[in-house]
Write a structure and sequence with these properties.
three-stranded mixed beta sheet, Rossmann fold, 16% strand, alpha/beta, globular
């Protein structure tokens, strides 16, 4: 079959592209507008039958042409603006790309699907985040598929809106849409504005390691290759109209994550000045910073026969090793400056 991946040159999109190509699952049409966080280097060789297409999902006519030319039987929608801090500074970009872009893609997919006679085997996988559920109290149960939406940032609000659109196109038009929500991803090729690569970048430069607030905001961490495997499982074994939650079961405070990165750097790249923990610096918290996210992926694991294979210690070691082996990555198009001050 032919797969169309939006945001294919992004962090998660490139991981899924690499997985599909390595498994020889079919033709991959890698669509990306090649924004600031995209990297062609993260993609595998796109030799025949695979193809790379530069296009913007907000362009409905371009999407129609791409779908007509390549006739995909599956669309995996990963294209999005994803950085919370940037959404505080430029919320309009997130409305445009995450809401308007998703609308245009859903409409193009609906036109294509209807033109093909509404084939039973067609699938649209809409990839989202656990941030749409808002902030959990310390002792509250983890998020599940039926958790209410309570987004608190422009980013999470834009993703919540796109989730609602995806479900509405399934309920109203019958488009076979599946929604997935994931916890924090990490691993190789992540743009260095995100926590892990940012901390590694600054530590290697001997700069202060900024930790927001008291550092006790908690997140569940999922290695990106495990998420890619989960998305492929949702495509192969998931049901239209269902929601699947992907979490790593690694619930940690931000300060614990920073300390784990420092300790791994101490092992792999020790500093003559002493432990990298000496560089930790607490800074003013981010506006609207959610206190805790946690995902209960029990139902998803059973339904899709999926489970994460990389534990947190392994994932951190691999991520640090990759950053050490790719020193030019940290400085690309971003100097590590603070974003999202409002």
């Amino acid at each position: 079959m032919t797969f169309l991946l939006t945001g294919a040159a992004g962090f998660i999109g490139s991981a899924l592209t690499r997985l599909l190509v390595s498994r020889q699952a079919g033709k991959v049409v890698a669509l990306d507008r090649l924004g600031y966080a995209a990297s062609l280097d993260a993609l595998p060789p796109m030799a025949t039958p695979h193809v790379l297409v530069q296009a913007d999902i907000r362009d409905g006519a371009a999407l129609d042409a791409i779908l007509e030319q390549h006739q995909p039987r599956a669309i995996i929608h990963l294209a999005a603006e994803t950085h919370v801090d940037r959404s505080i500074d430029h919320p309009g970009d997130f409305v445009e790309h995450n809401i308007v872009g998703t609308f245009q893609l859903l409409e193009a997919a609906r036109r294509h699907w209807q033109k093909q006679g509404r084939p039973d085997g067609f699938r649209f996988i809409h990839v989202s985040t656990d941030e749409v559920f808002g902030s959990l109290d310390t002792d509250a149960p983890a998020f599940g598929p039926d958790s209410p939406y309570r987004p608190n940032s422009p980013y999470s609000a834009s993703k919540a809106a796109s989730d609602h659109l995806a479900r509405a196109w399934h309920a109203t038009y019958g488009l076979p849409v599946t929604v997935t929500n994931c916890s924090n991803n990490y691993g190789p090729w992540q743009f260095p504005e995100k926590l892990m690569p940012l901390i590694i970048q600054k530590a290697l430069a001997g700069q202060p390691l900024p930790v927001y607030g008291d550092g006790h905001q908690r997140r569940d961490w999922l290695y990106v290759d495990d998420h890619a495997a989960g998305l492929l499982a949702a495509l192969e074994r998931g049901q239209p109209g269902a929601t699947y939650l992907f979490g790593g079961g690694q619930d940690l405070a931000n300060i614990e994550v920073v300390h784990a990165l420092c300790d791994e750097l101490d092992r792999q790249h020790p500093s003559a000045q002493g432990s990298y923990r000496r560089l930790v610096s607490f800074v003013t918290d981010r506006p609207g910073h959610d206190r805790r996210y946690a995902i209960d992926s029990t139902a998803t694991r059973a339904a899709l026969n999926w489970s994460p294979q990389v534990d947190f210690a392994q994932g951190v070691a691999r991520t640090v090793r990759w950053c050490l082996d790719n020193p030019c990555w940290a400085g690309r198009d971003y100097a590590g400056q603070r974003l999202g001050l409002g």
